[in-house]
TrEMBL record, chains A, B:
Annotated binding of phosphate, by residue: R100
Catalytic activity line of the entry: L-aspartate 4-semialdehyde + phosphate + NADP(+) = 4-phospho-L-aspartate + NADPH + H(+)
Gene name of this polypeptide: asd
Annotated binding of substrate, by residue: Q156, R236
UniProt organism field: Slackia equolifaciens
Lineage: superkingdom: Bacteria
Semialdehyde dehydrogenase NAD-binding domain location: 5-120
Keywords of this entry: Amino-acid biosynthesis, Diaminopimelate biosynthesis, Lysine biosynthesis, Methionine biosynthesis, NADP, Oxidoreductase, Threonine biosynthesis
This protein's name: Aspartate-semialdehyde dehydrogenase
Assembly, per entry: Homodimer.
Length: 339, 339
C-alpha cells in the first residue's frame, strides 16, 4: 500500500492533537509525519504510534516533500501557508474557514458529498463544526423528502474556542465549586460556567453571527442546494466538547417519523438514539470523544402549516472529532482512495 | 387600604420561598400570613418582614379565614387542597399545572391577559415558567403583527426541578472542579453539569414532552389564540435559575426589526437588551434574581418563505421569579385591585 508524507499545520492545538489521534486510530498510511506549529511550540515532543515526533516551526520549506497537509490553524495562518503548500504540490485539507466558500475549493462532509473531493485543486475545505454535525444528521432525511428549510438552535461546547476555552470552563467550575470568585474571562466574552452566551463569531448588519451564517452558506454548498433556507441561533453552553442542535426541518415531500428513523438508522456516521420510553436520547456527555453523530427526539413538527411537511429532531456530536479532526482525516482517506 | 389574609401552600420550596420574598418586595397588603407545608416542615421558623412566621402543616382547617392562597405545591397537593380552599371562600393563585387547562379557571400572565383575572371562580392558574417567559417576550410583537406560529428551543435552568435540582447541579460542579467522581443523579435522570438533557416531563405518543406541549396549550389559552401553532424542544442546561429561549416567529403581517424593537422597548415586564455591536444580549446570569424578561438578538427570519413574515429572537428570565413566584404575586395584586 502506498504511504504518504503527512503534515499537520497547527499540530499543538485541540484540533491538531485530535487529528494526530485520528490518524493513528484510522491507521492512515503514513510514510513520514511532520508536526508544524508556531515558533513558540517548536521543539516540543509529541508521541505518535509509539514514537516521539518533534514539533517544527511552520515555514515555507517545511512543506517540501509533503503529500497531504491537515490544516488545524486559524484563518490567518491558513492563508499564509496553504497557498505555499499548494505551490509545492501538497494537497491541504484545511479546517479554517478561509477557503470554505471559494468556488475553486470543494467543501466536504464524507457522508454527504464524498464525490466533491475529486474536483480539488490542491485545497479541500473542512466545514464548520456545527455544520458538519447538522448535515450528517439531516442529509439522510433530505434524501427521503428533499429539504427546503432548516431552523436550528445550537448548544455549542467550550472546545469550539480551543484548549483555552476548555481550560477556562474547567477553572470557572472549580472556582464556583470551591466558593471562590470566578476570574475575568479570556477565551469567551463572558463567564460561561452557569451561563449561556448567544454569540459565536462577529455580527453582520442583519444581526446574525458569522457562526450562524455558516450553516446556511456552507450547507448550501455541501448539499448542492443553492436555495436552501437556514435560520440559525448559535449559543455557547457550559459543556466541554460536544455540540448539540435542536433542528426543525421543512421538506418538499412528506417524511413520516417512521421513514425518518429508518433512514437515520441506516445512515453512515449516525447512531439513532431515539427511545423516549426508556429515556434514550442524544446527550453531549454520551457523544464525547467518539466519532458518531447521535440523533434522536425525531417527531413531526406539529407547528407545520397544513399541507407542508416538517420534522423536528435533536442531535449531538463531538466538536473536536467529527466536527473537525475526524472529518478532515476522513477526507484525507478519500483522497488516498482516489489516488 | 384593605388588608388580606394570605396563605402560601408549599411555603418551604424554591417557589414558595420566592413568593414570600415577592410579597415583601411588592408590599402586598397582608393582614395575616400563613405558611403551609408538609408535616415534615411544620414548626420551622421563617422570617417575613422582620418577624418570624412558624410553618404549619397544610390541613383543611388551615384555610379557614384565608382570603388569598398562593399555591406553590406539586399537582397532587394542589388537587388535594385547592378545592378545599375554594369551598372555604379563598381564591387560590395556583402554580401547579393541575388546573391550567380547566375552562373554568383563568390562566394569566399579567402583561398579556390581565382582564381574565376577573372571571375567576375561586382558582386562577399561574402558567408554566417557560411559557410565561416566552409570552412576555412575544406578546408585544403579536400586537404588532399577529402571531401564527412559534418554533422554540429552550435552555432551561436547574431550578425548574426545585431546590433539589439546584443543589444537585452545585454538588456536581464542585465534584468536577475538585476532580472527584460525580455521584448518581437524583433530581435529574442524568448528570446535568457539563451536559444537556433534552427531556423535561414525560413523553406523549407523538414524541413531545409534557413541558413542550405546555407552550402550545397554555399559550393558546393565555393569548386567546386557539389556532396558534407551537413546536417546542425543551432542554435542561447546567444553569442555575434563569431559563433562556431561542424563538422563531411567523406573523400574519410584516413586523420590521425596528418595529419589533420599539414594541419590546415599550412593553411591560420586558427589558430590551439588543446591541450586538457592544456585545449586549440577554444572558441567564444577568437575569438571575430579578423580575424582567430580557429580550435581544431580534432579527429577520432569513429562512421565512417569500411573502411570509418572520422574526427570530432570544430571551432570558428568572425561572423562580417571573417564571413562577413574581407572576403569581402579580396576579394576586390584580385580584386585590379588582376588589
Amino acid at each position: 500500500m502506498k504511504q504518504y508524507n503527512v503534515a499537520i499545520l497547527g499540530a499543538t492545538g485541540a484540533v491538531g492533537q485530535q487529528m494526530l489521534q485520528c490518524l493513528e486510530e484510522q491507521e492512515f498510511p503514513i510514510a513520514n509525519l511532520k508536526l508544524l506549529a508556531s515558533a513558540r511550540s517548536a521543539g516540543k515532543r509529541v508521541s505518535f504510534a509509539g514514537e516521539d515526533v518533534v514539533v517544527e516551526e511552520a515555514r515555507d520549506e517545511a512543506f517540501d516533500g509533503v503529500d497531504i497537509v491537515l490544516g488545524a490553524a486559524e484563518n490567518d495562518i491558513a492563508k499564509r501557508f496553504v497557498p505555499v503548500a499548494r505551490e509545492k504540490g501538497c494537497v491541504t485539507v484545511d479546517n479554517s474557514s478561509a477557503y470554505r466558500l471559494d468556488p475553486d475549493v470543494p467543501l466536504v462532509v464524507p457522508e454527504v458529498n464524498p464525490e466533491d473531493v475529486a474536483r480539488h485543486n490542491g485545497i479541500i475545505a473542512n466545514p464548520n463544526c456545527a455544520t458538519i454535525i447538522a448535515l450528517v444528521a439531516v442529509n439522510p432525511l433530505h434524501k427521503v423528502g428533499g429539504i427546503k428549510r432548516m431552523i436550528v438552535s445550537t448548544y455549542q461546547a467550550a472546545s469550539g474556542a480551543g484548549i483555552g476555552g476548555l481550560r477556562e470552563l474547567e477553572a470557572q467550575m472549580a472556582a464556583i465549586g470551591a466558593g471562590q470568585p470566578v476570574g475575568d474571562p479570556k477565551a469567551f466574552a463572558y463567564q460561561l460556567a452557569c451561563n449561556l452566551i448567544p454569540q459565536i463569531g462577529g455580527f453582520d448588519a442583519a444581526g446574525y453571527t458569522s457562526e450562524e451564517m455558516k450553516l446556511q452558506n456552507e450547507g448550501r454548498k455541501i448539499m448542492h442546494l443553492p436555495e436552501l433556507r437556514v435560520n440559525c441561533t448559535c449559543v455557547r453552553v457550559p459543556v466541554m466538547r460536544s455540540h448539540s442542535e435542536s433542528i426543525t426541518l421543512e421538506f418538499e415531500r412528506e417524511v413520516s417519523v417512521e421513514a425518518a428513523r429508518e433512514a437515520l438508522a441506516a445512515a453512515p456516521g449516525v447512531k439513532l438514539v431515539d427511545d423516549p420510553a426508556n429515556l434514550a436520547y442524544p446527550m453531549p456527555l454520551d457523544t464525547t470523544d467518539q466519532d458518531l453523530i447521535y440523533v434522536g427526539r425525531v417527531r413531526e413538527d406539529i407547528s407545520a402549516a397544513p399541507g407542508s411537511h416538517g420534522l423536528a429532531l435533536w442531535c449531538c456530536g463531538d466538536q473536536i472529532r467529527k466536527g473537525a479532526a475526524t472529518n478532515a482525516v476522513q477526507i484525507a482517506k478519500l483522497l488516498v482512495a482516489q489516488g
